[in-house]
Amino acid sequence: MVFATQNEKLNQWMNEVLQMVRPSDIYLCDGSKDEYNRMIQLLVQSGAAIPLSTHPNSYLFRSDPSDVARVEGRTYVSYPSREEAGPTNNWIDPDALKKTMSDLYDGCMEGRTMYVIPFCMGPLGSPLAKVGVEITDSPYVVCNMHIMTRVGTAALEMLGADGEFVPCLHSIGVPLKEGEEDVPWPCAPIEKKYISHFPDERLIWSYGSGYGGNALLGKKCLALRIASVMARDEGWMAEHMLILRLTNPEGRQFHVAAAFPSACGKTNLAMLTPTVEGWKCECIGDDIAWMKIGDDGRLYAINPESGFFGVAPGTSHESNPMAMETLKKNTIFTNCLLTDEGDVWWEGMDGDTPAHGIDWRGLDWTPDCDHPGAHPNARFTSPAAQCPIISPDWEKPVGVPIDVFIFGGRRSTVAPLVREAFDWDHGVFLGTTAGSETTAANIGAVGKLRWDPFAMVPFCGYNMGDYFQHWLNMGDRLGENAPRIFYINWFRKDGDGNFLWPGYGENSRVLKWMCERVDGKAEGRETPIGILPKEEDLDLSGLEMPAENLKELLWVDADEWRAEVPGIEEFFNTFGDRLPQRLRDQLEQLRQRLG
Ligand code: SAT
Ligand code: MN
């Protein structure tokens, strides 16, 4: 061992890994700017990183064409019993999985450097923060972790001599033999990729992929899958939610946490530019919320991350001007198109489409090509602090008190623009029955309804039936202090297939109504599926929208909803007796209200 930390457990784990993966070098990350720059320079020299002439200190990477997204089919939640992982997770017995993966890890870092990255999820010193240590052989991962988490000496200090950490082992799975040439994006073939979680041990083992959530293990693996288990055991919540603050013209602040499945505009909402007069929005986080009940009995949220790993295609000055500002500098781009001017470009960006560029595969591209120039899952990794509307309180150690939860999904029919749950249990029922129609950005058939309770299906580290019960338990503990729960659908269409609602900044009008509900200033209208705004309750001043659109957006068709019930029941049955009776009761009450 070339170095040791103060933490014996960490030293022991590093030694075990070292003997298994046998790197040619080992390096402990300090998290400094200097370290980041040195690492990037290595990547520029090897040809993996392309400096951009238009964005200071920013670089483009191209992944291997087989390594472009999270691989849910190769993601495992491993308990001794399959039942603990539940019906929504892939399962392999831990002994068998460890045996398979140990064989893969054996000598997997030969010819490479083993980087040890101590990192903190959450503001340093926050009572909600957790320390992790990622071991990786990918310098691209080190650079991204620098942006996405708080890396280095401060995390080690927080850990101290006997603190707990989540060990996160990552390898791209391509040892480099003596004299062998490296490729810009080494990774293992799909059948050798494993993104594995051992929740009983609070342990993560990832092999074979260098991309996003497969490789930046603080994000989905630690902050959601492992943290959801810690949260259940310790009585808090780890959710796939953005966090934002709204301030009304009187200066009263409201904090909102919202969960949507992918392709529903979560990052756009997190950085909303309100169109409604006098209202202000600040961003606290765009992907993950950790929440704990505070001394005053309210629910406080922190963003465990320190950066955004945002989808580039579709991001524009129209859809998300604040993201466009955020990514102007100090940003890592992955799988975008490179223009002849040394700029990045992607489908859905404002302005002209470049006449020529180099696509995400590194090939010549013109608008005549029959494939996109940027991969649909191309990403930007940017420091959250660079967001022009980042809240001054985004790193407040105690977090911000949540007033409103929002669930939602993409439905072209049936679901109205917005509704409020009657009470907590009904809100949990709405979160449980959240679903979204698939888009070209997801796998599978386009336009098919996919259930994604709380947008957590890919991220819940234990049996989801128990997770629903955890939500019910939290409500019982919060009582009167529980946030109010709403369900939105920005995506309802008219008979001709046109969106009825303009979306983006105009969504602030719906958020305003929610805040007025919290303040007891908006009456609403009871329907069998929840409380909807009356037409006059929504502030539409300055918005040109046909009156019939509004009617349709707020329309609740009892026949259509009756037709939903069997599908919900069938979905509920997949959880067997792990589905809380209180949710079955909710379904029965819905059936009765629909008559
Ligand atoms: O690749 S990540 O898992 O980090 C992002 C995402 O899939 O939402
Ligand atoms: Mn996400």
Write up what this structure looks like.
The chain has 595 residues and is of the alpha+beta class. It has 3 domains: 8-30 and 70-234, 3-Layer(aba) Sandwich (Phosphoenolpyruvate Carboxykinase, domain 1), CATH 3.40.449.10; 239-303 and 394-594, Phosphoenolpyruvate Carboxykinase, domain 3 (Alpha-Beta Complex); 308-384, Phosphoenolpyruvate Carboxykinase, domain 2, CATH 2.170.8.10. 28% of the residues lie in helices and 21% in strands. Strands 1, 4, 5, 6, 7, 8, 9 and 10 form an 8-stranded mixed sheet that branches. A 6-stranded mixed sheet has the order 14-12-13-25-29-26, with helices on both faces. Helix 11 (424-432) packs antiparallel against helix 12. The radius of gyration is 24 Å and the shape is globular. The N and C termini lie far apart (71 Å). The mean pLDDT is 97. Bound molecules: sulfoacetic acid (SAT) and manganese (II) ion (MN).
Averaged pLDDT, please? 97
Instruction: Give the DSSP E fraction (strand runs of 2 or more residues).
Output: 15-25%
Bound molecules: sulfoacetic acid, manganese (II) ion
As a whole number of angstroms, the C-alpha radius of gyration is: 24 Å
Please report the number of helical segments.
16
**CATH top-level class of the largest domain:** Alpha Beta
CA-based shape: globular
Distance between the termini: 71 Å
| Total individual domains | 3
DSSP, total strands: 31
